[in-house]
């Protein structure tokens, strides 16, 4: 689960440091808010945009609209002249992204840009059918295409309203949001001069790459911290398997402070899934007690849980890296059942986790049952070009090499304007975060390159717009 991964890590800060949990990749954990230079925390106004409900079928909803939330600040902007920085919101509340993307506002202060963070339909408060949004067939208008069209319509309309029609637009996004920003440049180059796609797994989510990559890379992260980690974790899962084989369920319950003893193979699979998910959320220590330490840190960071309930802390869905909890998780599950392919598996050979398969067939069965849909594994690579991106331009694909999502994205530059940046020691879209005293050299240098390219794109777009006048 792309977003949760990012946010959980920042929640965990103090625990990480106290326990020396992430000693060698401390950047993953440390988020002290020591800003320097100009003021970087702008005041966003929260607004709603009357958005077309269905961009592609004129009969289904007619000209019906819903309220799409966005955040805007003109604090840095040279009115009518400065560029527009537009964040293509991803799977969650837009405030979460705005408050974790300080780089965008820092760059806006330098380039005197208008900043807009737009919320993705079906997430946060942008629900086209309110509480009914997650019913069938109302959920059907949740597609990547509709979301991109929302952003395009919003950009055009807000430019009119703000007398900004000649202002170059640059889109930004992290994770799934990074995929969306890259797609905006592919699909709407008429409106968008360039895209910063941070940690965007555009390839793996289009079914390109191998299904073992993700959990292999999670394993490699832990191994890089402590080489004995892999065997220790594997040993822990093995012990768990043995206890389960002997149906020593009360032992398992007490080891893991479970609310109820497990009583079936399904409960054990659920526990395995919950444990694997804790590692996923914390990719960056010996036996069952290691596993237990980890679930305490990940699932009990509030210190409020008397015991762990297997089925409420982790919900199995069409994304084996977790869908999170709450309404946003329903929307993400639907997306993973339709366009976004997340058939990642662990196998206990190339990774340290118990074998948990998730094939296209498993996905199909689950999705038919849950949402009444059949996934289209080839659609994303048709619609958004897959790995045949070389005729695109002005996109930065940045990735931190500690991020298990990284190798699902573009790691090599494809041309002088399709630039892959590797942030060594970097976690999931570290570059989008505000500058911080603990930033490694690699992320400073990535942000510098990003700023230079974006400055250049803004100039190019300005002269293009002037030539066309
Ligand atoms: C939608 O179309 C109807 C019929 O033409 C019109 O009366 C109404 O004002 C339109 N609504 C919006 C939001 O444009
Ligand atoms: C959660 O944390 C609190 C506070 O540290 C602790 O008292 C409680 O036992 C923990 N719950 C579990 C299930 O470990
Ligand atoms: C992982 O593989 C090892 C070696 O083959 C085996 O002993 C162990 O039981 C396996 N662990 C799980 C959880 O299946
Ligand atoms: C990223 O940088 C690290 C450290 O310099 C290096 O080990 C790794 O191979 C690089 N990855 C890519 C894709 O360039």
What is the overall shape? globular
Structural class based on helices, strands and sheet pairing? alpha/beta
Task: Report Rg.
Answer: 22 Å
Would you report the number of β strands?
A: 8
- Largest sheet strand order: 1-2-4-3-5-6-7-8
The hetero compounds bound to this protein are: 2-acetamido-2-deoxy-beta-D-glucopyranose
Provide the CATH topology of the largest domain.
Rossmann fold
Mean of the pLDDT scores? Answer: 89
Q: Could you give a short account of the major beta sheet?
A: 8 strands, mixed
Q: Number of folding domains?
A: 2
Helical fraction = 40-55%
CATH class of the largest domain: Alpha Beta
Q: CATH H-level name of the largest domain... which superfamily?
A: Alpha/Beta hydrolase fold, catalytic domain
| Element pattern in H and E | HHEEEHHEHEHEHHHHHHHHHEEH
What would you say the CATH architecture of the largest domain is? 3-Layer(aba) Sandwich
- Distance from N terminus to C terminus (CA atoms, Å) equals 45 Å
In terms of DSSP E residues, the strand content is: 5-15%
**Structure annotation, total helices:** 16
Question: Residue ranges: pLDDT <50 for 5 or more in a row?
Answer: 3-39
Protein name: Dipeptidyl-peptidase 7
Organism: Cyclopterus lumpus (Lumpsucker)
InterPro entries: AB_hydrolase_fold, Peptidase_S28
Pfam families: Peptidase_S28
Short summary of the structure?
The chain has 469 residues and is α/β, with parallel strands linked by helices.
